[in-house]
């Protein structure tokens, strides 16, 4: 009994402190992420390595005439199979990664908005893994690939119809440093 | 002694409060039999601005279990026992009556006195005095409402609890904590990248959540006392779906490494990782039973997503849901008897409950895009996220489906609510 009273008093003191501190501390956390977000936007590093390795004046990864600039693989509803029309795209990235063993990609799975966030996160992951498996089959090392999922958090298209949903069921190929 | 304990537990909740609400609450339904209660405005001395009785009345009304009577027509407005004329309150069908006063003490503190009276038996059910600072009036009102609720329904009230939720306003995500009535919202953290899955530690001093601020999902635990936060899980792939063990020492989490989502447990300080599921399917959304012996989770090992349970040390899983092809997001009531979850029903996502012993299923909500169910600490209400007019909003439904509330935020999307634990 006495112990629980002491605990209560301690908790009371902690919570009394809490009332003012979260407000004071929140901006500290707040300041971190936007800074990182803006610094990681730079694509300079990717373009530099492109110049070195291919001796071209344009980075193949960002050249709009190069298939490597295409980064999204779209999926059918509730499916995680890479459709034939995206094979050339994925194979081109596989070839690039094999030729550039220092290059790394993050495969980001996405879903449409239907269903719950955590389950969609898991569904999006399946799509990232499906693209990874194609890359692996072409000889890309696991060390060059990280698969993650945004679930329903990063739709390419707004709206609640099939036109939007079909843009949002996808896996994006993002090179490290981009 | 009882009074001392009550006072101490009151101080637990006595956060300095300002009176602004971000969430407004609309009550859609009510219990079949509501308790008629008269809440007489408290006597006030100058310096006591807030009317405590108004907050008490709003709390009781919001629960759906009380009919708060209009008292202005009653001639005598008593503030202490000798002034109470019971027949006048019996005449307006009041079963219970609350009276009280707020008195300014030297130095600016306030003395709040309150009595709960049984009109039929003409006796006192509760009587308390609080010595508070001026900023503690709303918290005191919630504590008084909790006492009234418990005396008249036999169950503990949850008016003094807090809720956490995520807002998205102009592309920015914020994890916020507010009083259970939506007042006093405070931002715990915010980011331009998604923040999902906030979960209260069992003692209410910490929040676990998933943040994408490093361009991938990482599980953090943040202290609400100091604001300090720690990375609990930042492994290759996804780190998500945190769920606290009832003793607060561990978290069940979901990791992917290079493959599909699987359930793990990890100590709250990020040490001692242990894998619990070993499948090629999706296993996610773990949730501990109140005694800590069982973990409920969502898996598509049988085709579509269904809810399963296993020992919290891992091992064989038993399927729990059979009705329908999409049942996800398991949460267990504080008494361990009811499973709440999200069920797809004719293309709509709704809050459902299943009696764990009998397997009987009831769909509770009449909204269409429901997510993230969360039991109140007394098990009476389930808070959840839904969509109203194309915008994310919070709603609550009683575990029997009779009482429905909608909580809307001005300005942006509000999502992923989590009801905090009881304060003591």
From TrEMBL, chain A:
Instruction: List the biased-composition ranges (Polar residues).
Output: 50-63
Which positions, given as ranges, span the membrane? none
- Domain OmpA-like as annotated: residue spans: 62-178
Q: Which UniProt keywords apply?
A: Cell cycle, Cell division, Cell outer membrane, Lipoprotein, Membrane, Palmitate, Signal
Q: Where is this region: Disordered?
A: 23-63
Compartment list: Cell outer membrane
> Which superkingdom heads the taxonomic lineage of this protein's source?
Bacteria
Which biological process terms from the Gene Ontology are attached to this UniProt entry?
cell division
Cleavable signal peptide: 1-25
Q: Give GO cellular component annotations, separated by semicolons.
A: cell outer membrane
Checking InterPro entries in the record gives: Bact_OuterMem_StrucFunc, OMP_bac, OmpA-like, OMPA-like_CS, OmpA-like_sf, Pal, Pal_lipo_C
Q: What segments bear the compositional bias annotation Low complexity?
A: 34-49
**Topologically, how does it sit relative to the membrane?**
Lipid-anchor
Q: Which Gene3D superfamilies match?
A: OmpA-like domain
Q: What family does the entry list? A: Belongs to the Pal lipoprotein family.
Please give the subunit comment from the record. The Tol-Pal system is composed of five core proteins: the inner membrane proteins TolA, TolQ and TolR, the periplasmic protein TolB and the outer membrane protein Pal. They form a network linking the inner and outer membranes and the peptidoglycan layer.
Task performed by this protein: Part of the Tol-Pal system, which plays a role in outer membrane invagination during cell division and is important for maintaining outer membrane integrity.
What NCBIfam families does the annotation carry? Pal_lipo
What is the protein named?
A: Peptidoglycan-associated lipoprotein
**Species assigned in the record:** Methylovorus glucosotrophus (strain SIP3-4)
């Amino acid at each position: 009994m006495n112990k629980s009273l002491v605990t209560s008093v301690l908790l009371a003191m902690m919570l009394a402190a809490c009332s003012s501190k979260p407000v004071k501390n929140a901006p500290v956390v707040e300041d971190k992420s936007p800074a990182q977000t803006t610094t990681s936007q730079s694509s300079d590093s990717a373009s530099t390595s492109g110049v070195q390795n291919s001796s071209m004046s344009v980075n193949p990864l960002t050249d709009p005439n190069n298939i490597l600039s295409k980064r999204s693989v779209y999926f059918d509803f509730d499916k995680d199979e890479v459709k034939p029309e995206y094979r050339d795209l994925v194979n081109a990235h596989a070839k690039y990664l094999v030729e550039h063993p220092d290059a790394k990609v993050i495969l980001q799975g996405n879903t449409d908005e239907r269903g719950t966030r955590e389950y969609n996160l898991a569904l999006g992951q399946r799509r990232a893994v499906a693209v990874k498996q194609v890359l692996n089959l072409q000889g890309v090392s696991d060390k060059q690939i990280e698969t993650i999922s945004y679930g329903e958090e990063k739709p390419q298209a707004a709206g609640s119809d099939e036109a939007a949903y079909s843009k949002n069921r996808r896996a994006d190929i993002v090179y490290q440093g981009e | 002694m009882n009074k001392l304990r009550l006072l101490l537990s009151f101080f637990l909740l006595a956060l300095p409060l300002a009176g602004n609400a971000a969430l407004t609450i609309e009550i859609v339904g009510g219990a079949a039999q509501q308790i008629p209660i008269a809440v007489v405005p408290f006597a006030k001395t100058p310096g006591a601005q807030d009317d405590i009785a108004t907050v008490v009345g709003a709390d009781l009304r919001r629960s759906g279990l009380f009919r708060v009577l209009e008292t202005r027509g009653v001639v005598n407005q008593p503030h202490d026992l000798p002034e109470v004329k019971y027949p006048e309150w019996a005449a307006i069908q009041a079963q219970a009556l609350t009276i009280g006063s707020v008195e300014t003490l030297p130095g600016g503190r306030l003395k709040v006195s309150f009595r709960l009276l049984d009109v039929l038996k003409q006796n006192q059910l509760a009587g308390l005095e609080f010595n508070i600072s001026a900023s503690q009036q709303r918290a005191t009102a919630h504590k008084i409402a909790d006492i009234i609720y418990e005396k008249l329904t036999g169950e503990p009230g949850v008016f003094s609890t807090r809720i956490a939720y995520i807002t998205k306003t102009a592309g920015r995500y914020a994890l916020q904590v507010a009083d259970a009535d939506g007042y006093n919202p405070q931002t715990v953290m915010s980011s331009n990248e998604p923040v999902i899955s906030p979960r209260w530690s069992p003692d209410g001093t910490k929040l676990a959540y998933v943040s994408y601020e490093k361009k991938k999902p990482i599980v953090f635990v943040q202290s609400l006392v100091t604001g300090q936060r720690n990375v609990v899980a930042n492994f290759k792939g996804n780190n998500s779906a945190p769920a606290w063990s009832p003793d607060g020492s561990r978290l069940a989490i979901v990791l992917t490494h290079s493959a599909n989502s699987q359930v793990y447990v990890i100590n709250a300080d990020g040490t001692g990782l242990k894998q619990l599921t070993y499948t090629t399917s999706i296993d996610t959304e773990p949730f501990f039973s109140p005694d800590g012996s069982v973990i409920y989770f969502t898996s598509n090992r049988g085709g579509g997503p269904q809810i399963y349970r296993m020992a919290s040390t891992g091992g064989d899983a038993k399927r729990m849901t059979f009705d329908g092809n999409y049942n996800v997001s398991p949460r267990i009531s504080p008494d361990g008897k009811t499973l709440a979850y999200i069920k797809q029903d004719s293309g709509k996502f709704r809050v459902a409950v299943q009696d764990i012993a009998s397997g009987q299923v009831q769909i509770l909500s009449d909204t269409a895009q429901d997510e993230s169910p969360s039991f109140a600490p007394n098990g009476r209400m389930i808070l959840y996220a839904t969509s109203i007019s194309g915008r994310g909003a919070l709603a609550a439904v009683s575990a029997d489906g009779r009482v429905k509330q909608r909580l809307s935020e001005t300005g942006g999307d509000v999502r992923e609510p989590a009801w905090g634990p009881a304060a003591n």
